Amino acid sequence: MADPIDVLEQEAVAALEAAGDPDALEAWRIEFLGSKGRLKAMMSTMRDLGPEERPVFGERMNRVKESLQAAFKQRSTAAADAIPPMDVTEPGTTSDLGQRHVLTRTIDEVVDVFGRMGFSVEEGPEVEDEWHNFVALNIPEHHPAREPAENFFLGNGNMLRSQTSTVQIRVMEHAPPPLKIITCGRVYRPDTHDATHYSMFHQVEGLCIDRNITMIDLKTVLFQFARACFGPEAEVRMRPSFFPFTEPSAEVDMKMKIKGRWQWVELGGCGMVDPNVLEAVNIDPEEWSGYAFGLGIERIAMRRHGIADIRWLYENDERFLRQF
Ligand code: DAH
């Protein structure tokens, strides 16, 4: 009859040989070397032996245990080494990085160009009162620009501002001249959406109040801006117009390619600040004069990047946005 210790050892060695992966190795460890494993079980048969047989048995069992432990350790290291190393040439999992919206970038560029011409940046609220949106800007009670159909009134005397000219008033209320500021922000009008109109859009408003300011200063600043923004070849023009808060007033147009044809497109309005506006904020029009302008930022972005439809700017279609 075969010796039971030899049998157990041979079985263990054969099973270890066959255990090919970490799971099988762990199962083997539990079966043979575990606290309820086969070696432990055989060890417990020692108490059935006579006193002179016990030390011999115990010693043999210990040697078998040690040799199996060593064999197990060796197999485990070999199995770990056999795990294929990471392939650094495989394509990685990339996370999608966002980027700033083309309008945000345009605003930064506009701020940069005017900054170089000495304008600092101011901000004003989008929820406004009628004093800042109309009254102080010399827009009288029954002016068509105050019609409910032209504005988002909020019913509590407030409204969503329809123009950034509101910020001219807010700045002049709080700071004495000389002033040279711009502000960029959203304005709201209940326009029907089409390729060039949207019910919310952005304007850059400029205001310069100082002594001896003339329309030449205004024209210089606007034409310099257009060249910096659209390139030295950019065509811009000023056309006589009317705004209640400037006198004289002008509209600024730029040449823009639409459906393959270069056409004049309105960029915004401008003019010399009306004395009534200065008086509304307690600035003496005999001592101070200035100019103001308000330009559409979407139009600037569309001209710079050849964007044909304003609605694309708000659709959040990544295929469009990722181009810039
Ligand atoms: N606020 C005018 C608008 O939204 C644009 C404008 C015209 C702004 C003339 C000005 C200005 O500052 O002087 O249509």
Query: What is the tally of helical segments?
Result: 11
**Inertia-based shape:** rod-shaped
- Strand proportion, as a percent range, falls in 15-25%
Bound molecules: 3,4-dihydroxyphenylalanine
Q: Looking across the biggest beta sheet, what order are the strands in?
A: 1-5-6-10-9-8-7
| Low-confidence runs | none
C-alpha Rg (nearest Å): 41 Å
Report the order of strands and helices.
HHHHHEEHEEHEEHEEEHEHH
Helix content: 25-40%
- SS elements, strand count: 10
The largest pleated sheet is described as: 7 strands, mixed
Distance between the termini: 86 Å
Mean pLDDT: 94
Structural class, please? alpha+beta
Please describe what this structure looks like.
The chain is an alpha+beta fold and 324 residues long. The longest helix is centred in the first third of the chain and has 29 residues, at 54-82. It is rod-shaped. It contains eleven helices and ten strands. 27% of the residues are buried. The mean pLDDT is 94. The strands form two sheets. It has a seven-stranded mixed sheet, sandwiched between helices. Strands 2-4-3 form a three-stranded antiparallel sheet. The chain has helices at 4-18, 22-33, 38-43, 54-82, 102-116, 130-133, 166-174, 215-230, 275-280, 297-305, 318-321; strands at 120-121, 127-129, 152-153, 158-160, 179-188, 200-210, 236-243, 246-258, 261-273, 289-296. Helices cover 39% and strands 23% of the residues. Residues 163, 165, 205, 243, 246, 268-271, 292-294 line the site of 3,4-dihydroxyphenylalanine.
